[in-house]
Amino acid sequence: MAGYLFRNLSLLEPEFGALQPGQEIRIEAGAVVEVGENLASGSADVVDCGGRIVMPGLIDSHVHVMLSSVSIPSLEAVPLTLGTARAAKNMRGMIDRGFTSVRDTGGADWGIKQAVEEGSIVGPRLFIAGQAIGPTGGHSDPRRRTDVFGARCHCCNAMAFSMNVSDGEREVRKSAREQMRQGADQVKIMMSGGVASPYDPLDSLQFSDSEIHAAVEEAAAFGRYVCAHAYTPTAITRAAHAGVRTIEHGNLIDARSAKLMAEKKMFLVANLVAYYAMKERASEFGMSADMLQKNDMVIDGALRSLEICKAAGVPVAFGSDLLGELQIDQSREFLLRAEVLPALDIIRQATTIGAEVVRMEGKLGTLKPGAFADLIVLDRDPLADLGVFQEQGRHIAAIMKGGAFHKSRL
Fold first, then answer.
1. How far apart are CA 406 and CA 60, in angstroms?
2. What is the Cα–Cα distance from 115 to 128, expressed in whole angstroms?
3. Cβ(163)–Cβ(106) under 8 Å?
4. Are the C-beta atoms of residues 403 and 1 closer than 8 Å to each other?
5. Quick one: three-class SS letters along 153-216?
6. Which of 115, 124, 289, 341 is most buried, most CB within 10 Å of its CB?
7. Opening angle at CA 11, ends 5 and 14, nearest 5
8. Strand partners, 64
9. Among residues 13, 10, 6, which one has the least CA distance to residue 368?
10. Helix or strand or coil: residue 405?
11. CA distance linking residue 301 with residue 253, whole number of Å
């Protein structure tokens, strides 16, 4: 792989927190090998950045690349081949927006991850959960009230491929083991009701303590961790006491449950844009009135959750959680968070904190020596203008993943 020397740039290293003009970056064999001033180019290709900003590639810690429709029940008519083709399109859009790594929390499997790694599909690095695991009647149960398992095929469409229904400690333990056997980087469980599931109340508590402990125990034994879908303080508290590592959503978190999360060294993966996009446009793609009513219940707490977690010292990662046709709104998450947080905090959420969530500190979310050469070159300073991330990557002059250019107009 060719080596590169990036010159004529200002470096935004998120941990440092300010632009560093005059820096240069040397890349070899897909990794950053040297950062400094007046570096020797040797045999490396010199890349003139034209005075632009260079920063690490972005990390979205909550996506669903396989959920190609806002109306999840409609995915039962989507075969895996078509679902995979749509996922490829979704992932191409993500890396075009500068997201060089994403954490899929239900749907993506080892096959699609391998397709990206070998270059058969263009997309960001994938950290996968396989199927999201939930109880009968919970957020992972997409059946209509008149459905029963066995009434139709529930194993070979894009909907069932993303979801797993397990009841009892024994089933949960087996399902967690199965996801990890199939290459999961994290195990996803459902612990409260959800917006996009039709029949479970938002404040419902899903899985018993023994079921939650079973998932956590199995994940830990395999060197993995559990991430939990949870909205309410009660669900968050149960997750914390059971050893769950990350809370997904957490819109209704309060100071007490946030304090507990901080004590347990947990992460919140927030995703505000999903709720705003669903409120504005989801009905035209088939989301029901009942689901939209639940969406209204959590949207008001979205920004407040960021403030509560900041006060409690809970690290918050950048997530989007957009379904299907709404995924083009991914980068709007930056602007929503900017209503309550400074730009640097948000950039760290999409880089260094995201790297901690996926357990890739020092490799992702940074451009220090030893890191993967995942970087983006921006036309404007994001510390002054988060709008530089908007318009589907229009203002990103170059995108590199693993030392290879995905895009460059330098």
1. 18
2. 13
3. yes
4. yes
5. CCCCECCHHHEEECCHHHHHHHHHHHHHHCCCCCEEEECECCCCCCCCCCCCECCCHHHHHHHH
6. 124
7. 130
8. none
9. 13
10. strand
11. 8
| Of 31, 93, 56, residue with least CA distance to 392 | 93
**pLDDT tens track for 24-56:** 999 999 999 999 999 999 999 999 999 999 999
Kindly state the DSSP code that residue 284 receives in the 8-state scheme: G
Residue-wise pLDDT tens digits, 351-399: 999 999 999 999 999 999 999 999 999 999 999 999 999 999 999 999 9
Lay out the sheet containing 99-104: strands in order across.
58-63, 99-104, 125-127
Q: In order of start, what are the domains of the chain with their CATH numbers?
A: 4-57+362-408 (2.30.40.10), 58-330 (3.20.20.140)
**Cβ 393 vs Cβ 399: under 8 Å:** yes
Amino acid at 88: A
Q: What is the CA radius of gyration of the chain?
A: 21
Which token pair is 69? 């429709």
Which token pair is 143?
Answer: 């059946």
What are 252-309's pLDDT values in tens digits? 999 999 999 999 999 999 999 999 999 999 888 888 888 888 888 899 889 999 999 9
What the block records as the tokens of 61 is 């810690």
Whole-angstrom Cα distance, residue 295 to residue 310? 23
Enter the pTM of the model.
0.95
Give exposure, 352-368, as e/b (b: 16+ Cβ within 10 Å).
bbbbbbbebeebbbbbe
**C-alpha torsion sign, points 373, 322, 305, 244:** negative
E-only strand ranges, 286-387: 316-318, 375-378
H-helix or E-strand containing 43? none
Give the residues across from 318 on adjacent strands.
270
Positive/negative CA dihedral, 115, 223, 64, 173: positive
Across the strands, what pairs with 405? 400
Cα distance between residue 158 and residue 323, in whole Å: 13
Q: The tokens of 122 are what?
A: 């263009």
Rounded Cα gap, residues 266 and 261, in angstroms = 5
